[in-house]
Design a protein that fits this description.
The structure is a single chain. By secondary structure, the protein is mainly α. It is 84% helix and 0% strand. It has helices spanning 3-19, 28-34, 39-79, 85-121, 129-165, 171-205, 209-214. Helix 3 packs antiparallel against helix 4 and helix 5 runs antiparallel to helix 6 (171-205). The chain is elongated and about 100 Å long. The protein starts with a helix and ends with a helix.
Amino acid sequence: MNNIEQTVQNKLVADYRKSYPWAAEFSDEELALLCPVSDEDIKAFIVGKRSQVITHMAEVDDKILDVKREIQDSQDVLDDPRSISEAQSEARRDISYANNRLRRLVEEKEKLFRVMVEFDAYERSPLTEAEREDAKQKIVRLIDKIQELIAKYREDVELLEKVRDNPRTPSVDSREASNDIVYDNIRIYGFMFEKDKLVKRLKYLGWDEDDKRSR
């Protein structure tokens, strides 16, 4: 995975982890399978970054113009026969400092230009056959894990329902059990939704019954 794609993937994983309560059950690698990078994600990232770079380049251009004006002002002092020696010495120092700043600004602009070229030339590499097979195996293992999580949380819900419905359960504990049931059901629905997405991805990657028997 190249730098741009990895950057986008990291952001998707971070956003997913913040957004969904069941994300705590998964590693970053597993979350990357739940929120894979799409071409649209990369395009949106590049558009946003290009806009930032263009803005930055404009700011650098403004600074370069300012420095060039400073250099010209100092040069005017040097060219003026009426300038005293102290003023000319200060002008030379100012030109030296300004030229150093100008060099750094030009280097910064060149770096930004190279970033723009990288964005313009970006082309996402297709999965190799080995990468495709690896992705299928990882997805299958994640589906198995999700099935186990669904079963676990359904057991939790059944136990909590017994606590909630027990007439001897204090009202405070009963309300807490009801709240926990809601949260667990949210997780269950989330797991089921993600499982369905993973199954579709498996089919897209070419998973079939022979693959299942080879596991």
